[in-house]
Amino acid sequence: MHLFYIFVEKFVMIQDSITDTPKEKLSLATEKEELLNAVNPENVKDNISDKVHDISDLIEDSLARILDAIPAIVGAIIGLIIGLFIIRTILRIVRKRFEKRNVDLSLRDFIMSILKFALYTLLILTIAGNLGFKTTAILGALSGLVLAAGLALQGSLSNFAGGVLILLFRPFEVGDYIENNSGTDGTVEKIDLLYTTLVTSNGIKVFSPNGTLANSVIRNYTKITNRRFEYIVGISYEDNIKTAQQTILAVLNNNGIVLNTPSPEVFVNELADSSVNLTIRAWAAKDNYWTARNSLQEEIKIALDTAGINIPYPQQEMRIINNNNNNL
Questions:
Q1: Phi then psi for 178, rounded to 5 degrees?
Q2: Please, which residues have CB within 8 angstroms of residue 6's CB and are 6 or more apart in sequence?
Q3: Distance separating alpha carbons of residues 197 and 199, to the nearest angstrom
Q4: Region label for 218, one of left (φ > 0), alpha (ψ between -120 and 50) or beta (otherwise)
Q5: CA max distance for the chain
């Protein structure tokens, strides 16, 4: 149908050009002959036949390539299944060996993460090679991708390096109670490649970046055996300091949680505006620290009340001088 429209258009142009020169008439006659050949049924049939033949060849080539690739695809699927089974077996064996040798939990999780990444990467490269992909090109692309990702994720790389440093120097382990210089404290639950998970005393999970944690001051309360707690108690200026000291020391010495060595001490720390401030220092085992610290304040307050020692509240004395002789 399209060729018919072209023929009609050319025929109209030929009719409009009857007044042209003989040379132009010859050219138009040639074009007319070409159009007649184009719409010739035999030529149209040949063109259609050629197109159908080309499409048929394309389909045959595609089917041949698919059939040729079926063994490689089936082999890749089988290799993937076997590879996954082998990786899981290796990870299970390594995990059991770690448990048998009592390897530290933080180091165990870190090594398992790296080993898992390496094994899965090797499996992907092996399957890609079996499918006919060039592994060198894949490695080159991965190298460029890693470089670009490294530039974009400098903070994450810093956290990764911090995690490695933590596992090498081991300032803390899983289960330790720590505090950093930003005031975040809690029990270490897990050390990952990028973050360390802490559980605070009120049950909140805190995810601390390893880079920041490795570069900060870390207080590890688990590595010690004993901890010291300290109070400041104010007594009235009218009360006897020695009596107050003896009363407080009696409470500390009679408490079974407080350690005798180092011995407890009570001393005057400050002569404040409204009170004489006494500093109380005593030691307890790290497991009994919070119990001792929380219970002794109540016992000291009751003992001071019994001994008649007052704990004053802040007060200010004001005197008004009236220079006017007239009493109002």
A1: -130, 170
A2: 35, 38
A3: 7
A4: beta
A5: 143
The distance in angstroms from the start CA to the end CA of the chain is 124
Amino acid residing at 89: T
Task: List residues bridging with 258 in a β-sheet.
Answer: 284
Number of C-alpha atoms within 13 angstroms, CB side, residue 243? 14
CA distance 54 to 51: 5
Report CA torsion sign: 212, 160, 112, 79: positive
Do 91 and 112 form a contact (C-beta atoms < 8 A)?
A: yes
- Bridge partners of 178, per DSSP, are 186, 220
Q: 68-85: buried (b, 16+ CB within 10 Å) or exposed (e) per residue?
A: eeeeeeeebeeeeeebee
How far are the Cα atoms of 130, 253, 258, 284 from residue 290, in angstroms, in the given order?
A: 62, 17, 11, 9
pLDDT per residue, tens digit, the chain (328 aa), is: 544 444 445 555 555 554 445 555 556 566 656 555 555 565 555 666 666 667 776 777 777 777 666 777 777 788 888 888 898 898 888 888 888 877 766 677 777 878 888 888 888 878 877 777 766 766 666 666 666 655 555 566 777 778 878 877 888 888 888 988 878 889 998 887 788 889 988 889 988 888 888 888 888 888 888 989 898 999 998 899 999 999 999 999 988 889 988 899 999 999 988 889 999 999 999 888 888 888 898 899 999 999 999 888 776 677 777 766 555 4
Distance CA(11)–CA(34), nearest Å, equals: 12
Residue 13, Ramachandran bin (φ over 0: left; ψ between -120 and 50: alpha; else beta)? alpha
Backbone phi, then psi, for 280, in 5-degree steps? Answer: -115, 125
Question: Would you say 248 and 265 are in contact if contact means Cβ atoms under 8 Å apart?
Answer: no
Amino acid at 163: G
